[in-house]
Amino acid sequence: MFRAEVASAEGSGSLRLVLRRMDAAHFSLQAADALGQSRWELRVAGADAVWIDSSARRYCRLDARRPVQLPQWVANVAIRDFAGLLTGDWPRETALADPVELSFPGAMPPGAMPRRLAGEREDGRWKQWTILEGDEPTLWWKRSGEEAVLSARQPAGQIRWRVSAHNASAAEPFSLLPEGAGAEVACHENALP
Asked: 139: which of 16, 85, 126, 158 lies 20 to 30 Å off by Cα?
């Protein structure tokens, strides 16, 4: 479980996030507000993902290989990488020496600057990293103890989170789309309603 603080030009807020990893390719991420009310759930199975809004009884299918499209979302990170981002395991470049400099794969629009990753690892895990487009840092992450910070330039914003509980219980059966998820709505280009 994570406690997260989100700040951007649109405002700020806090969330409780519960991450359940079934295996490397399957996980769910549930978000609740400060009062404990469920806000949304994201379920990922390989290249497929489903966003569920239980209060509105609706869901949409997403491409987990691409980022979520939201004006206030600060991370241009593929949905399938969210679990690793929260735990400090993403990007998965475990055999690299410090400091790291490598090409960063990802869908780049025509005319976009090439992406690079520069970072520092400690004890086989990321201590900090920065994604650069050309010479400009666009996304950076840093861990300090149990707290992590993710900052972005466009749109400008920051997410801070802290691990608040660990539970290594056995994985429960996983279904990408649970019963009672509601009505399907369209999420063209991974844009959430």
From this structure: 16
- Parallel, antiparallel or unpaired: strands 183-184 and 58-63: parallel
Give the containing element (helix H, strand E) for 3: strand 2-8
Span 66-115, pLDDT tens digits: 888 876 665 667 899 888 888 877 776 433 334 444 444 444 444 555 57
Six token digits for residue 173 = 């059966």
Q: Please report where in the chains the tokens 């789309």 appear, as a residue.
A: 177
What does the chain come to in residues? 193
Task: Determine which helix (DSSP H) or strand (DSSP E) holds 82, and give its type and residue range.
Answer: helix 82-87
Q: Which residues contact 152 (CB under 8 A, 6 or more apart)?
A: 74, 75, 76, 138, 139, 158
